[in-house]
Amino acid sequence: MRFSLLDRVTAIEPGRSITAVKAVTLSEEYLADHFPRFPVLPGVLMLEAMTQAAAWTIRLGEDFAHSIVVLRAARNVKYGDFVEPGKTLTVTAEVLSQDETTTKVKASGTVGDRTSLTARLVIERYNLADRQPHGAAIDARVRAEMRRLWSLLHPAPRADGRPRPVAYATALPGMALPAAAAVSR
């Protein structure tokens, strides 16, 4: 996964269902072209957000057993409403069935009480080591990165139940870390 279209996971039953949110902001680069005078989240990115949500519940349901979790097919995709900057897309995905390599998922995206997208997804999962002799090392790196990304999307709550703030361990080039990040290290 080169980019994440989910900002936060709000509920999850590993291997069964997930609810996540994507806040659309005007600063997102693709909105300049889609469309210049009427910026909206492209439909393909709404579908990608649903796919990423489904992949997380699959990964957690099998304790990251497969390094690669990708969309194999999107069926019955129906778009309902635009998602404009300033709106939050809430994505839900529910696992319908699963075998050794594929998972069938029913997914939807809503803004408030309005449906923006629904689809049936077929997600494929595998390890590179099963297809390439040198894939095991890559599988291990991908799994470690997915676990790190999961900790950002769904940080463990504190002992008192309050959510933990997300702090980044390294600053981007030319930027200083906020004081909170320096303390949490």
Can you tag this structure with a few keywords?
Thiol Ester Dehydrase, Chain A, disordered C terminus, about 180 residues, globular, single chain, 3 helices, about 25% helix, alpha+beta, six-stranded antiparallel beta sheet
Structure description:
With 185 residues, the protein is an alpha+beta fold. 24% of the residues lie in helices and 32% in strands. It contains three helices and six strands. It has a six-stranded antiparallel β-sheet, covered by helices on one side. The protein is globular and about 50 Å long. The C terminus is likely disordered.
Summarize this entry quickly.
The protein has helices at 43-61, 135-153, 179-184; strands at residues 8-13, 17-23, 68-79, 88-98, 102-111, 114-126. The chain is an alpha+beta fold and 185 residues long.
State the end-to-end CA separation: 26 Å
**Tally the helices: what do you get?**
3
Low-confidence stretches: 167-175, 177-185
Oligomer: single chain
State the share of residues found in helices, binned by percent.
10-25%
**How would you characterize the largest beta sheet?**
6 strands, antiparallel
Q: Compute the CA-based radius of gyration.
A: 18 Å
**Spatial shape:** globular
User: What is the strand content?
Assistant: 25-35%
Helix-strand topology string: EEHEEEEHH
**Average pLDDT, all residues:** 88
Judged by helices, strands and strand pairing, the structural class is alpha+beta
Beta strand count:
6
- The CATH architecture category equals Roll
The CATH first-level class comes to Alpha Beta
